[in-house]
Amino acid sequence: FLENDPVYERYHDFQNRYGNDELISALVVYDKPIWDTAIITNMMKAEAGLKKIKGVDKVYSFASSPYLQKGMFKAQQRPILSSPPSDTEELEGLQLRLAGTPLVKNMFISKDEKAIVLLIRLQKRELIDKFSGQVLKDINYTLTSIYPKYHLGGLAVINNALNIAVSKESIIFSLLSFFACVSIAKTLWLCL
Question: Within 13 Å of residue 113, how many CA atoms lie on the same side as its CB?
Answer without folding.
Answer: 11
